[in-house]
Amino acid sequence: MQHENSEPQPIELTREISDFHGVRFDATRVCLTGTYADELSLFRAKRSWSEILEDNFLLEKNYDYEFTYHCDTERLNFILNCEFVTSCGRYAFWRLTNNQAPEAQYLIETAHIPNAELRHDEFLSAPDLEPVCGTINPEESAVLNENSGSRSFLDVIVRLFRGR
Fold first, then answer.
1. Which residues lie closer than 8 Å to 116 by C-beta, 6 or more apart?
2. What is the pLDDT of residue 16?
3. pLDDT band, residue 115 (cuts 50/70/90)
């Protein structure tokens, strides 16, 4: 047996490891982004999102919001983007991302899951809407948090270290 070279060898990560499947939002682009493992889930989500936005917010497809989708070949994901174009669309986006329409938010988060008894656990464990990582710089985050009256955990830590 060879035990001469038994020390762990460091590896270099060239990209972030992320297996997140679900819906995130990008406040700077006013866009919802859904990441799915298969193309069927993407199209199921697209159809459901359209129905949810039309029924709950009276938005019109290709006028108030627009869909784009593509396949991420590196991570083998299918990505659905919904960009809100008009002021009515941006207001609906604000309501979805600021807990002003929790029923519609939950329906968007679970839109890709088939409505079946066997999938009950997936409905219960669907991740909540989260911001897309790295889209808001610290200055914008501080302004948004001051305007909304709440502070993020990171903002509180930074202010504690600065002595404010």
1. none
2. 46
3. low
How many angstroms separate the CA atoms of 107 and 128, rounded?
A: 11
Residue with tokens 């909304």: 148
First to last CA, the chain: 60
74's tokens = 């590196």
Chain position carrying tokens 């409905």: 123
- Burial state string for 95-115 with b = 16 or more CB within 10 A and e = fewer than 16: bbbeeebeebbebbbbbbbee
Mean pLDDT computed over every residue of the chain: 75
pLDDT in tens, 9-22: 564 544 444 456 78
Average pLDDT rounded to a whole number, residues 140-161 = 48
Which residue, among 45, 127, 24, 35, has the nearest Cα to 79 in the 3D structure?
A: 35
